[in-house]
Amino acid sequence: xxxxxxxxxxxxxxxxxxxLLNTGELAKxxxxxxxxxxxxxxxxxxxxxxxxxxxxxxxxxxxxxxVNSYGPHLGEEKPxxxxxxxGTIFFTSxxxxxxxxxxxxxxxxxNGEEVDSYQxxxxxxxxxxxxxxxxxxxxPSHVVAQxxxxxxxxxxxxxxxxxxxxxxxxxxxxxxxxxxxxxxxYMPDMKYADEEIARRYSGIPDYPSTNQTAVGExxxxxxxxxxxxxxxxxxxxxxxLVLPNHLAGTQAIIRFLAEKISQNTYLNLMDQFxxxxxxxxxxxxxxxLTVEEYQEAIQLAHxxxxxxxxxxxxx
Length: 315
Known about the structure:
Blueprint: H1 17-23, H2 25-36, E1 65-73, H3 78-81, E2 86-91, H4 104-107, E3 113-115, H5 117-130, E4 135-138, H6 144-156, E5 163-166, H7 173-179, E6 185-186, H8 195-202, H9 207-222, E7 226-228, E8 231-241, H10 250-261, E9 266-270, H11 291-303
Parallel strand pairs: 2-4, 4-5, 5-6, 6-8, 8-9
Antiparallel strand pairs: 1-2, 1-3, 7-8
Helix pairs in contact: 2-6, 5-6
């Protein structure tokens, strides 16, 4: 699984899902994913609830996806933004309970509107009309079935942009299997290296092992991030939010990426932590990241041979 060396530029051959559309496989994947909603294993929780009957699991989402907002986004990673922005769709709710969530007004509430597959497909096509460079699915882990249905419809109607799967990293291998050759760019978080820390701050019992397995599968599917004329077309892009007091286990996560995934991993070491949501209840989280802490994270990446870093802004 581990690879080294420089990423080769590739020709832009279009998103992978168009090949599945032409063979009928994309529609089959969508139908199978919908069947899974009757005993939901869409994310790593595997709640087993029947979402067709309105039963709610950890994500608090029923049969329909709920969209909080959508539009061109200029604040994403550089290879996603280009000149016209990343076409982000923010899904309401989340399968994590991060006590410091920087987007808690979306992830920890029911704000937003329920949309059916046709409406979600129309949003994707609207973002394409805006001129966005990709369709960026934010917090998609709990709505994979709904996304697959919408992508099938949108592709039939002319969607041809790369799909970005922008998740918290607590993803099901079942869903990732259904997304193989559908998603072009995987952008998971790697939040924690320690199980007890993950349990304390996000309510997840097995995050590190599940997250690492998922990231490995994502890389197996799409490889290192491939950039054509400044724009990401296919591959893995990892996000890691550096936390105060080394709570995220940054060194261990960087070591995992360098040794088990690829030294050529495109990594966004995020510096924007601030005490949001319920972070004030945890004294060790109740402050901003320091310049020294962030510089140490950058140095750790360099020492591990990971040099493809998205931005280094904390000053």
